[in-house]
Specification:
253 residues; mainly beta; Porin; eight-stranded antiparallel barrel; two-stranded antiparallel sheet; 50% strand; elongated
């Protein structure tokens, strides 16, 4: 994604947030009037749920057309141990059309783990991504851990709002996140443990696309970051971005 595409996406995302704030303001005024005018439909215009839990798996995709440098060894993730845990502190839906079409947004705390099959070690507090292969040590565990706050904003469709246990639902939108901290944890086969904290030249702000689909109590989600995993990583051969897919264990009911 080039500079103009990134600028367009951020402008689009901020515009959605602005429209969302206007919608919240207008809907708050409509709620009072609807309580007086509509005595048949008692459904809320704004619904809030607290502490929803997501679990999933992380992966990585290298950029199309990326040419690796000489003697390049790609990063390989161990998928089954590259886990995602997301705690939605709160999640809200705003009715915009007959309780079938909603704007949905949340504030979530994410914990992401990227388990590396390669013996890569990263230098903290460096303005360049500087991975090094430690050939003399065998790791039984080698992982990057990222903690972040994230705000997803989606357009959501619910086929039966009155009977959600019989309802099909789908949502599409985007997300914006802020990195709070990162560390690399390593454990050798001899049992020695190492933990290094740093930013590892990870972007402080990340953004991307998000989708959800489900029926009744089941909701599956996927998330694809449009921002790079590392900043200015082409020279080191780490020009890739991440994606997440998983299941919402505590649904919006």
């Amino acid at each position: 994604m080039d500079h103009h595409q990134k600028k367009w996406f951020l402008s689009f995302f901020l515009s959605i947030i602005f429209l969302l704030l206007l919608s919240i303001s207008s809907k708050a005024q409509e709620v009072d009037s609807l309580k007086i005018i509509d005595t048949l439909d008692t459904r809320k215009q704004i619904n809030t749920r607290w502490l929803l839990l997501d679990i999933g798996w992380n992966g990585g995709i290298y950029y199309t057309g990326f040419t690796p440098p000489p003697s390049y060894i790609p990063v390989v993730l161990e998928r089954k141990r590259s886990l995602h845990f997301g705690l939605n502190i709160f999640r809200q839906r705003i009715n915009i059309y007959k309780h079938r079409l909603h704007i949905e947004y949340a504030v979530a705390l994410n914990f992401d783990r990227f388990e590396l099959e390669n013996p890569y070690s990263f230098a903290p507090h460096n303005n360049l991504v500087t991975p090094s292969l430690v050939d003399t040590v065998s790791f039984s565990r080698n992982s990057l851990h990222l903690n972040s706050w994230m705000i997803p904003i989606l357009l959501q469709y619910e086929s039966n709002d009155l009977k959600k246990w019989k309802s099909f639902h789908v949502a599409l939108g985007g997300h914006l996140g802020i990195l709070m901290g990162a560390n690399q944890k390593q454990k050798t086969i001899e049992g020695n443990r190492y933990k290094v904290k740093g930013d590892f030249n990870l972007p402080p702000i990340y953004y991307g696309l998000q989708g959800e689909i489900g029926f009744s109590y089941l909701t599956l989600f996927t998330r694809f970051n449009l921002s790079p995993f590392f900043i200015d990583a082409e020279d080191s051969g780490l020009a890739f971005t991440s994606f997440t897919f998983g299941l919402r264990l505590i649904p919006f009911f």
